[in-house]
Every structure is written in C-alpha cells, then in structure tokens.
Amino acid sequence: MKKLVIKIWFFFLFSLGAFAQKEPLLLPNPDFAEVSEGLFPLENISIFVPKNASEDILFAIGELKSVILERTGKYPKTASVSPKATFQYKIKETGHELPEVSEMNGTSEREWYQLRINSGKIQVEANTSTGLFYAIQTIRQLAQGYGKNAKLPLITIKDKPKIGYRGIMMDFSHGGLLSVDEIKKQIDFLAKWKTNQYYFYNEVSIELDGFPSLGYKTGYSKRDISEIIAYGKQRHMDVIPFLNLYGHLHELLRNEKYADLSIGHYGHELDPRNQKVNELLTNWITQYTRLFKSPFIHVGFDETWETKRIADDVDMKISSEKLWLQQLDFVQAELKKQGKTVMTWTDMNNYYPEIIGKIPRDVIPVIWEYKPDTVEINRYLNPVLAEKRKFLIQPAVSGWGHIYPDADYTYTNIDLCLKAGIKNKTLGFINSVWTDPVEPFVRPSWLFMAYGSIGAWQGTSADKQKFASDYASLAFPKVADEMKSAFEYLQKSNEDLDKGLGRNTNGMPRGTIIESWSNPFLPYYLSNTAKHLTDFKNARKNSEEAQSALISALEKCDKNDAPFINSLLVSARLMHYNATRFLWAKTVCDRWNDSMLKKKKNDFVVYDITYLCHGLLIDMMDENGALKSAYEQSWNSEYKPYRLNTILGRFDVEHALWQKLHLKVNDYRIQNSPDHIATKPFEELFKPDF
C-alpha cells in the first residue's frame, strides 16, 4: 500500500508542475519512484574507476560517460579516490551478466537496482553489473537539457522486471539480411529498454562447416555470429539461436544434394523417416551449440504441415503426430547432451490436440499468436496451462504485411499476449519481427519493438494512445516534435491504405503488401479504387504530412539518427506511391473516357496523360525512378546485398508498365489526326499491362 501511495504522490507532484525542469519521463516505468525538489547538474558528476574493475563494470561506466558527453559536450571528471567521486556504485555479486536457466523459478534479483540522486551525489546499488547497467540506462532517460543546462532530477528509484526473460526475435531468413552493424544498432537500441534476450532466427543463413554452398556470400560467418554474441553480452543481452530443425528448410532442400531429405521433392520439411536427416541434424547441432554460448536454444518445429499430409494424402497408417514427437525427442536429446535448455513452438496442437502432454518435460513450450484476439491466444495457451507447463509467450510486430506496421493491430496483439502472460506467470515474453515479403524495412518496427520490451519489464502495456509521443521524446530528443508528428501520420497513412487495399488486407499477416504492386488498370482494381477514392486520397495526404515531418527532422537530427529517419521517409514515400498508382490509373481512364466517349471531343486529353514534362504517366515514371534510388540507398544502410535485386526488379517492372503505356498513347496519337475521337474506353483500347 505504501508503494502505491508514493507512486500517486510521484505523479501528483508532476501534475502540480512542482519543478522548473521537465517532468521525468521513464520507459519502462520503475517499480518505485520518489521525486524531491531540485536538480543535479551533469557537469558535476565525477567518477572513480578502480584499476581492478571488471570488463562489465568498465563497460557500464563507459555508458555513463557517453551519456554525460552527449548531454554536456564534455568528458566527465575523474575522481582520484572513491570517496571523492560524486557517482558512487555498489555491486553485491560478480558475474551473472546474462539470463540464466536458474531464473526460471521466478525469484531472481539479478537485474534489481536502486538509484538515488540527491543534491550532492548519485548512488547506485545493484546485485550485479546488470543492475548497474540498467540504472545507467535510467539515468540516460532522466537527463534533461544540453551543455551547462544538462541536469538530472533528484529522485530515488527501486526497480526490477516483472518478467525475467524479455526478448526480441529477429528474422534472419525470409527478407533482407541485416548487416552486422545494423544488428549492433538494434542491440544498443533494445538495451535502452532493458531487453535481455535477442533471438537470432535462422534457417540456413549462418555458414556452417561442410556446407559451403549454403549462405555463400549472402549469410553470416561464424566470426560474424561470435562478434554479435560478444556485443550482446556487453549490453547484458543473451544472443539465442532460434533455429528450424524440422520445417521451413526449403533453402536447404531445394538443393539437389539434399532434396531427398525432404517430404516431397524440393519441399520445406525434413523427413523424420530418413536416417540421413538425423545425421545432418547431429552435425548442425554440434556446430550451433559450439557457436552460441547461450544455455537456451529454440528449435522451431512449427507449421510442419507436410508431415501432416503424409498421413492425410499418402498413407493413413502413418501417424504424423508420432513422427513429429519422434523428431523432437531426438533433437532434444542431442541438445541435452550439449547442456542446452530447449524451447519449441506449440502451434501443432492445432492438428494434434493431445500433443502438449506428450512433449518432453524438459522442453519449454512457446506460445505464438500474432492476432489481436484473446480467443486465438487462449486456443494455444489453455492446453499448456492444462498440462501445468511453464511457458513463454510470443506476439509479433505486424510489419511483414505492410510497408509500415499496422500500429493498432500490433499494439493490441502485444497487449493481449502480455496480459495473458502476466496472469498465468509466463517465464518470458518474446516479441517477433518477421520479414516475409522482403520489401518492408525493419526500422519502422523499432517503435513497436520498444513497446513490447517496455511492457515486459513493467508488467503492463504502455499507453498506446501516447506511446509514440513518449517514445519520440526519449529516442529522438533533438527532433521529438517532428518525430511525434511523423509517427502519427505514418500510422494514419497505413490505416487508410489498409482500407483501400481490402481484398487481402483482412487476412493478416499478408496485409496491403500483396496488392501494392498489382496492375491498377485491371477491372477489379479500377472498381476498387472507385469505391475507395477517399481512402487513397487520405493515405496520400497523411503520407505527405509524415514526409514533411521527417524531412524537417533530417535537417536538425543527430547525424547518427539520419539513416534511420531516412528509412522511415522512404517508407512514407512508398505508401504515397502505392496510393498514387491506383488513383492515377483511375484518373487516366476517367480523363480519356470522359473526353472521348462522353463529350466526343479530344479536349487536350493526350496532353494531360502523356505530356513529356508533367503528364500523369510521366509522374509515375519520375517518382518510381526516384524511389528506386532512395530505396536502394536505404536498403544498403540496413541490409546485406542479398535479395536487393529481387526488390529493385519490382521497380523496373513497374516503370515498364507506365513507360509502355506512354508509348502506346503517343503512338495512337501519331497514327491518328489531332481531332480524332476514340470509340473505346482507355483500358480496353490500350490494355495496360506489365
């Protein structure tokens, strides 16, 4: 009760505007906080670091120094002895930098910290260096102003997470493959929100000894992975292998050398009946477990529909459920030899209702559900609860179905999964980022990655109505207003496109991306555009507002944020272009048909459509070409080259549509007299196609 009273008093003080400085905004919200009057100048911080300080302590102190440098423009003072330092810290235990298997009992205090800032000192107490690191991340958020005006509020905070394992699963198989530098930026970003696990989803994107053709010049070397693991450890983030050791292996099985290991030639799943499969998996398991130091490993085992079809379509005597369990038993036994704790997805409960009770007790079920639907979540959760199994829960950022993530869909999915997880004492919370359609950048998902991480720490979701605004204030302090506006209009533009491209939109996860490059002159799309004129126009208006805000942000942002903001700008332009291509197709047809068929006069129609400087068709070619260049630049700032040409090809084919149409209309004009009146509709006469 005392804690609740203090929290209420904390926010009451803020509401009275008791302090001259800005009200402290903290995400995640701390477990306990009490504010006093006054401010502590950052330039008054002095630090003493003993010569025998461990690497993890040195790294945490280095983070504090970077905060002071960013805010004051100066390096902090060095104290000659510990008692003279204004920054004091006390760590109770050495080691324990990363999440451990023992923490599954839910009683761990490894990440607990206490931060006291008074008029003369900053004091941190923590059980481990992890708590010290998180206390400094809190100081980063508390910092206000720049130069001599850089200050901290006087405050006492005691904090620890509500969920022990808080992770992000990043897809390194379906879309573009992030550069190692971009992965490091993600880890830095996630550390600010106190994330402690980074799941590296891999099908065949990591180079393995004995498999030289897999991932050749496209994927990640073992040296890359070791570098990423070490980088994560410094920031108290465990890099966990998230493999697929059963299904989703088409990139392997499409090779002739391995095709006979699949169910169905060139399929997607390994065939458990083939002994060579386990020989291959034994090899992979040995290599992966030597590479990844984490005590945890996720083995996938989701969506093994082809195994189900063996029984349904080939031989009813086969028990596909037994094959699935047989394969999991084998994989789990091999990984246990390597000292690994295994996780697996539970969606096959959909096909085999009793399967949860048959999964080895040492295997941790992971419940994934990406819809904002409690009924769907409970459909997977209830069988796990009935078996009294410890579990993790996994929502997703719905960015793979749209150019820009579906915000409310994502927020609600995360909210419901978090609520279900907290209620039923989940071990952990994993937020997924998938890249199936390849085209959308991952950077627009960062906002929602932070949202999930923050909720997992504090045990309740942030206020989604004001989250983007709060996030912008903390993540982009120099251009907070511009970024607040950008996030608002990006969300609105996506919502409008969502209404306009409706046939596949409601069947998430695919969303609007399926239709965005379709032929806009087809009868279905011309009719659909007529029904959704307002939606497409609003998508353009909101995108234009987002672009204006982002362009303004680029003019005065921190230079390190410029590539990130530019990726959002390219995404906004892509949404604008998608709406435009449908509107322009209808406008071209309407302009021609109204003049030629209704008015029976040429009425400058060809000039409107094909004028070499400002015709409607030229508009599309100009913007398509400019977008292609901007898109390529943003891709190269985020990804490896793999799959770039696949996406750039879409721009090339798109350009051909408008270029061919431009030539057809001009040729028609050349072949007929200036006062010629056409007798067929535009779409019938010119048959626009790629």
UniProtKB/TrEMBL annotation:
Enzyme Commission number(s): 3.2.1.52
Catalytic class of the enzyme: hydrolase
Beta-hexosaminidase bacterial type N-terminal domain residues: 26-159
UniProt keywords, alphabetically: Glycosidase, Hydrolase
GO cellular component terms, semicolon-separated: membrane
One Pfam family from the record: Glyco_hydro_20
Domain named Glycoside hydrolase family 20 catalytic: residues: 165-370
Reactions listed under catalytic activity: Hydrolysis of terminal non-reducing N-acetyl-D-hexosamine residues in N-acetyl-beta-D-hexosaminides
GO molecular function, one term: beta-N-acetylhexosaminidase activity
Residues at the active site: E303
GO BP term, pick one: glycosaminoglycan metabolic process
Alphabetized InterPro entries for the sequence: Beta_hexosaminidase_sua/sub, GH, Glyco_hydro_20_cat, Hex-like_dom2, HEX_bac_N
Family as reported in the entry's similarity comment: Belongs to the glycosyl hydrolase 20 family.
Protein name, as recorded: beta-N-acetylhexosaminidase
